[in-house]
Amino acid sequence: MGRFLSLALALLISAGLNALRPMPMRPEAPALRLEADCAVETASLFALGLKRLAADLGLIRMLIYYGTPQSHEDHHRAEGWHYPQLGPRALRILEIDPAFSYAALYASGALAFNLSRPQEALDLLEHVLKRDPGNRQYQLYIAAIGFQREGNSRKVIELLEPVLNSPDCPTMIKSMMAFLYKKSGQLDKAVRLYQEIIETSRDSGYRGTAERMLAEIRAGRPALPTSRPPTEPRPRK
Amino acid sequence: MASGFRRFGGALRGDGALVKKVAILAWNCWLDNLGSRFYAISIIFGIVILYISLLLGMLAADQELRVLLDFGLGFIELMGLAGAVFGAATAVLREIESKTIYLILTRPVSRSQYLAGRFLGLMFSALVSMLIMAVLHLAILFFKGWTWDRAYLLAFVGIYFKVLITAAVTLFLSLFSSSVLTAMIIAAILWTLGHFLPEIRVMTPWARPALWPLAGLSYVIPDLQLFNLRDRLADPQWPLLAWTGYAFVYSLAWLMLAGFWLRKKEF
What we know:
The structure holds 2 protein chains of 2 kinds. Helices cover about 65% and strands about 0% of the residues of chain A. Chain A is mainly alpha-helical. In chain A, α5 runs parallel beside α7 (about 120-130). Chain A is globular, with a radius of gyration of 21 Å. In chain B, about 75% of the residues lie in helices and about 0% in strands. Chain B is mostly helical. Chains A and B meet through α3 of A and α4, α5 and α9 of B.
């Protein structure tokens, strides 16, 4: 009897300790939790045979999520992490449409270069790379994020340059690359890329940033000194 | 509706060629559909929604074109399907109820020819309405800077095949059940199941006898996911010829069943 009691007590203590244990600093990568709020919508679209549209709506939701400033409560819930659902949302989109690499590129770019959470970005990319091992853009992103972590901007530029011509390249990455060009003194390339963003981007936020940067370059101002990864404005206004 | 048949009634007198009879019936069916309120409303609704899709596209930033493309194709499919299923469920039953079918069957037209004519007319109506929406959709896409891709045409063909198959099944169901509502509900269920066939087959292995009925059913239900070319726009491997064969053979089989049922029907 005493043995059973001590076992029960041990289990209770263990459960209590587990409950008291602080949450991990970031969500577990591939176990990234998929949220259930739009499950009905996705299931309905699946039933109608509109799989790609379900992925599109997922992307729009993700962009709106990332473009909406988080409230204090959200921060608190997220243990201090901004946009904790960015990775899971991208994964959800890729689950629906594995060919929609833009979602993974966008989310990993935002995590690594805007939110300074390269590990989360790498987890996400590794996960999607397992499903699409031949995707060169994922490979380049992984390498670029690795160099970004080390502060090696030159290598980041070298790796991401080929990605710029891809139709899947998010404007966020173009904007970051233009900034890196500017920072490293390659002003011609920076001007060209900013002009391309102004001409082709459908996002007014990035167009505004590009216009401002171009004006700065043309006014002959030196590149902004920075010791940390370049921070981009959030894409939506 | 009957006036249309009266107008062309003269052409049905005598022993006209089979193709000619079917073509005349199909043409009349198309004219009937053209004048129906549902057909006009579905096209107008489709055009308005396609226009509104511009707003959705704007939210997708870099992926605006993809969203416009997917939304447009998806919507064209749903509107084409709604028109075709409604038409197939009501086409013959309505004429049986209003007795206008006698006006045609008293001519030298067999029931099978009548059914074939109605179905072809219906499918032509669906094609025209889908083409109208596709033209507007393409105009929107080109306006937004899209460049022509042959994948669009193939995706459109895939959509049409899905509508064709579903309409054929619905026509049979309407005759079998003698109820518009039942036929439309079962068609909707088949449409849904048709998109989950690969999953159903994976989940119902033959080793489990309890699942045999479902597994067997999965080989009767049309595999609509096969024609979902717009979900695989990035995949260039499209055995179009095989799929065309599948669509026509499957539709023909259900039409023949419907014809058999109509021949046996007493009204």
